[in-house]
Amino acid sequence: MIDEKKLEILTESAKYDVSCSSSGSRRQNTRGGLGNASAGGICHSFTPDGRCISLLKILMSNDCVYDCEYCPNRRSADVPRASLTPDEICELTINFYKRNYIEGLFLSSAVFSSPDKTMELLCETATKLRKLYGFNGYIHLKGIPHADPALMMRAARVADRMSYNVELPSEKSLKLLAPQKTKQSLLLPMRRLKDAIDCDRQLKLRRHILPAGQTTQMIIGASPESDGQILKLTESLYRNMGLKRVYYSSYIPVVRSSKLPALPTGLLREHRLYQADWLIRFYGFDVDEICGENENLSPDYDPKCAWALKNMHLFPVEINSAPLEMLLRVPGIGAKSAYKICEARKFAALDFDNLAKMRIVLKRARHFITCKGKFYGTESLPAVRAALILDGAGERSEQLSMFSEPSTALSVLNGQL
Amino acid sequence: MKIFVTDGSSDSFFTAVFDAYNCRDSLITSSNDVQMTFDSEIISVQPDPEKSRRVQSGISRCDKGAIGDILLVLRSSDGLKEQTALEYVRRLMERKSPIDRAYNLPEVILFNETKEKVTGELHKMKGFLRFMESSSGALYAPYSPDNDITELLMPHFAERFKNQRFVIHDVKRKLAGMYDGRECITAYVGEAEIYLSEYELVFQTLWKKYYRAVNIESRPHEKQMKGYMPVRYWKFLPEKNGNGDL
Prior knowledge:
The complex is a heterodimer.
Chain A: H1 4-14, E1 45-46, E2 52-53, E3 55-59, H2 86-98, E4 104-108, H3 115-131, E5 138-142, H4 149-158, E6 161-163, H5 171-177, H6 183-202, E7 214-220, H7 227-241, E8 245-250, H8 267-282, H9 287-290, H10 303-310, E9 317-318, H11 324-327, H12 335-344, H13 352-357, E10 369-371, E11 374-375, H14 381-402, H15 406-411
Parallel strand pairs in A: 3-4, 4-5, 5-6, 6-7, 7-8, 9-10
Antiparallel strand pairs in A: 1-2, 10-11
Helix pairs in contact in A: 2-3, 3-4, 4-6, 7-8
Chain B: E1 2-5, H1 10-20, E2 26-29, E3 41-44, H2 49-62, H3 66-73, H4 81-95, H5 106-128, E4 132-133, E5 139-143, H6 150-161, E6 166-170, E7 175-179, E8 184-188, H7 200-214, H8 222-228
Parallel strand pairs in B: 1-2, 1-3, 5-6
Antiparallel strand pairs in B: 4-5, 6-7, 7-8
C-alpha cells in the first residue's frame, strides 16, 4: 500500500502543473477491462482554489538531476524527496478510478538518474496499467526531454495525451533559467509526435496513438517576453505542431533567485492570455489583430473589447443579418450565443428583448449591435470606453483578490512550476 | 379549469396530452400539491397505451428527437414539468417541424432550460458520484440528486465497469439501480446495509490527503469551487468529509 507521506510530497510537487483536462479521447473499454474515456472530459472534484480535479496528477519522483532555476525540485534545493514504483502508482490509480474519484492518471516526473531511465519507468507504468490491469481510462504522460525517441513512441502507443512543456516563451530565457533543457530537446519530440500522429490518422485503425493529441505549458512572467511574443509562439504551436492546448501558468516565486523576479505575476495577465488564446482557436482571430509583437494585452478590457474599440468603423452590426464570423467578433457574444442567434433568427427576426430572454449577455454587446435596426448602446466612443472599463472592474478586482501574496507564495516550498 | 393528474409515468403523461390537448383551460401535473381555484375540476389520468402511442407517433412525425427530449424533461424535479412539456408539444404540433432551436419562443426556452437542468445534473453526477467498496467486492454509491437520473446514469457506469457489480442508490427517491456484470435493473429500495471492505477507509483517507495536497493554498477561490461543485452535493463526497454544511 502506498505511503501517505509519499503521496503528499509527490502531489505537492505536481500541483503547479496547470493541465488537468481529461477530454479529447474516445477510448473504449475492452472485454473484462476497467474504464473508458469520455470525449468531453469529466471533472470529479473542485479544490478550494477553484480548480478541477479530473486526473490523479502526481510525480513518479521529485528527485531531480536538473537544476532549473524556477523549480523547487531542482537538484540544489533542500526539499524532502520521494519516489513511487510503477506498481504503487497502478494500484492507486485503479482504486481511485473504481471509486469514481478520478478520470485517469496524469503522470509526470523529475529526471532521476537519466532521461532514458525516467521515460522508461513512465512508460512501464502506463503499459502495466493498460496490459496488466486492463485499464482503459485516460492516461496523460509527460514527455521527458532528451529521452530516446523509441521510448517516446512506446509511451505514445499507450497514452491518450502527451505533453512536452516548452517551459519558457523564448530560447534565451530557457538558456538562462533551465540550462539543461534546450529548445531542440523540447520541440523535436513534439515535431516527431506530430508526424507520427498525422501518419497514424491516415490509417483506418480501430485504436489510434495519442487520441487526445499533445499539449504544452509555459511560465508567464518569470522572463521578460511580451504578450505579443507569447501569443505568436502560441499561434505557431497550434498551427505547426497541431497542439490541442497551450497552457499558461503565471509565475509564483517559490524559489529565491537573483535571476527571477521577486514578485508573482498577476493572475489577470494569465486570464487575458487565455482569452486571447480562445480568440485564436475558436473565434477566427489572428494574433496580429489582437496584439502587436512587442505589446502587452490591455488589463482594462478583454482582448475582444480592445479589438472592437480599435475597429469601431465595423460596428454596430445588425443581429438579424450579420454573418456568424462577425457575430463572433462582437464583445460579450460568445460562441454559444452566436450559434443560438443564428439558429433563432431562422424562425423570426429578433429584437433586444428576445436576446435578453435567450440569456445573451448584453452588457458589453449592446454598444456594438442593432436589433431590427434599433441601437441600444452608447453613441460616443469615450462613453463606450468608460462603460466597458466599469464592466470590467468586477473582473479585475476579483482577479486581484486572487493574486498570491509574495509572502504566502514563498511558503509554498514544494512545487513544480 | 381542468387539472389532469398523472401517476408520473410517461404513458400517463402522453395519455393526458391526448385528453388535454384541445382543452384550452387545462393543466397537467403529477404533483399532489398543485394550487387549485374554485372552479377547477380534477381528472385522474389512467394510462392508456393506445392514446399514448398515438400522441407519441404524432410528435415523432414533427420531430424525431422530441420524444427523447420530453422524456428527459419528465425526469425533472420541477413541479410544472408536465405543463412545460405540454406547451412545447402544442407549439411543435402547430409548426409541424422541429422547434428545438427556435430560441425566440418562450415555450422552447423554458423547455430547454428544464431539460438542461436534467442533463446538466446527469453530467455532474458522472463526476461527483462516489463509490464505496463493500466486503463482497460490489461497489455502492448513495446519492441524492435533484432530478430522477439514476436510470440515465446506469449505462455510463456499466460501460466503465464491465464485469464489476455495482449499485447506485438514490436515497431521496428510495430508488436503486443495480448492475450484476451483465444487465441493469432499477428497483425501489428503502434502506441499504453495507459492510465495507477492509481497504475502503484506507483509500478514502488517501483520497482526502490527495485532495488537500493538490490545492494551491495561496490562491483561494472558494466561490468558484462552490459554483462548480454545489454544497448540496458535498454530503456524499469523502474529500468534503461527507459534510454538506462545511
